[in-house]
């Protein structure tokens, strides 16, 4: 890995900013001052010290984001703000991407990482990683709808796997429902389509959980943080390198 890339990924600034550190002789590689940003290093074996502090290489990073509405789950887009635009420059240096997607008008938990194998495992139908959503619904959900979800709703292009529908609140005056839906799939507009198949409409959708990860109530919309060590360890059930 190039030395300037390693320094930038460790949060020491942009490529231009780390070049200034190198120019000043503040970066030691195995005890020797290195001034060239193009210097190739072994990020797992070489000792890198900047201003007296030793840096360690972090192969994978994991960010938990509370995605707001109006932002798309993509790495770049010409028309809309993306989830990467919500990160700071240091976090973006890690070349992370969203694991799966949330519709532009859906908010809630979204995992961003640079660990491709983990992302594949979390989205693989074979792994059956559950996702839980809270939905505000126009219309009154009934026990019959709970049973339809459990049986597997048949849509025009595919039949959904059995899912759990939990009715949290019913407002008969306004004819609205608050429900929680847990499913192990994540096909295009699936939650909205399942509710529509029951003759109702989702008016607000929030993802609360994905696998062992839960939405952090301390995160405001648009805020993000690194996964805790405990959260990272919880992902070991997927059987990939973390």
UniProtKB/TrEMBL annotation:
GO terms for cellular component: cytosol. The keyword RNA-binding applies. The keyword Lyase applies. One of its GO terms (molecular function) is rRNA pseudouridine synthase activity. Its EC number is 5.4.99.-. Coiled coil: none annotated. Belongs to the pseudouridine synthase RsuA family. PROSITE patterns: PSI_RSU, S4. This is Pseudouridine synthase. Keywords: Isomerase, Lyase, RNA-binding. Residues 1-66 form the RNA-binding S4 domain. InterPro entries: PsdUridine_s_RsuA/RluB/E/F_cat (IPR042092), PsdUridine_synth_cat_dom_sf (IPR020103), PsdUridine_synth_RsuA/RluA (IPR006145), PsdUridine_synth_RsuA/RluB/E/F (IPR000748), PsdUridine_synth_RsuA/RluB_CS (IPR018496), RsuA_PseudoU_synthase (IPR050343), S4_RNA-bd (IPR002942), S4_RNA-bd_sf (IPR036986). SUPFAM superfamilies: Alpha-L RNA-binding motif (SSF55174), Pseudouridine synthase (SSF55120). It comes from Streptococcus sanguinis (strain SK36). Pfam families: PseudoU_synth_2 (PF00849), S4 (PF01479). GO terms for biological process: enzyme-directed rRNA pseudouridine synthesis.
